[in-house]
Amino acid sequence: MQRTDFGEMACSIARTFDILGEPWTALVLRDVFIGIRRFDELQRDLGVSRKVLAERLARLVDLGVLARRGYSSRPPRHEYTLTEKGSDLVSVLLASVAWGDRWAAGEAGPPALLRHRGCGELTHAELRCARCGDVLHADGIDVEDGPGAVIPDRIKERL
Amino acid sequence: MQRTDFGEMACSIARTFDILGEPWTALVLRDVFIGIRRFDELQRDLGVSRKVLAERLARLVDLGVLARRGYSSRPPRHEYTLTEKGSDLVSVLLASVAWGDRWAAGEAGPPALLRHRGCGELTHAELRCARCGDVLHADGIDVEDGPGAVIPDRIKERL
């Protein structure tokens, strides 16, 4: 359906959104994260067609984001769990929760609250600089070529 | 093209990916963030059709994520800048850079490096608990109903 192969671009945003850039996929990951792990339950919760759900799940297993394991042999039934790669991808979702809560929740307020098991408090995810620990804002970042860069000269001039 | 209205779901992930869940949109925001702000330059850099680009830009302006301003009156030409809402959305992209660099960069390594202007170091975005400051992992989070929740009972039982 999608003709451009974002996963092949030399850009970590393109590569991430090659997976997440289809809202059902983000919501499948959300559901597995909150403990909805079985096909029929996922289908019921999301209200998505079985065909689309099966495709998304198969892709996420292929990519190593989800692991599939049997929980019944007669009839054969499977459930899905997050791999380490998948759990790390849920972190991107946690950043999106912070944005959605702030900018898209409206008067009703946040649909869900996150409690950090470590400190026991209701919280939200905050982006911080891994080096100095300060809060990281987009306008405090400069972008430079990395080792995997494939950047045309016309763009390099701007960076 | 997309029949399900993710923006209307009571979920901050669905609401965020109603905007970001189309990879071109994420890449348009990336480009504006790194300083590629004019229509023709965006079109050249992304290699996307003018029609798709115009649609995405108009939607992002409508949503208040980008602001459009004229930089030439003859001929009329516009450039796009991030609003505060948009700059905050770029933070979600910064979280995705960290994931893509770790899990999708392969042997070539990260395509781009982020330098934090505050401390001057090359860095990556780290998600931390806004309350206690510890690093936040998906598996250290419990999800609870928020004020804007619309959660069916069958799901509530699991939370």
Description of the structure:
The structure is a homodimer of 159-residue chains. The first copy, chain A, has 159 residues and is of the alpha+beta class. The first copy, chain A, has one domain: Winged helix-like DNA-binding domain superfamily/Winged helix DNA-binding domain (Arc Repressor Mutant, subunit A), CATH 1.10.10. Chain A has six helices and six strands. In chain A, the strands form two sheets. The first copy, chain A, has a two-stranded antiparallel ribbon with strand order 1-2. The first copy, chain A, is globular and about 60 Å long. The interface between A and B is large, with 97 and 97 residues.
Can you summarize this structure?
With 159 residues, chain A is of the alpha+beta class.
Structural class by SSE content of chain A: alpha+beta
Net shape of chain A: globular
CATH superfamily of chain A: Winged helix-like DNA-binding domain superfamily/Winged helix DNA-binding domain
* Strand residue content of chain A: 15-25%
Give the N-terminus to C-terminus distance of chain A in angstroms: 34 Å
SSE ordering of chain A: HHHHEEHEEEEH
How is the largest sheet of chain A built, in terms of strand order? 1-2
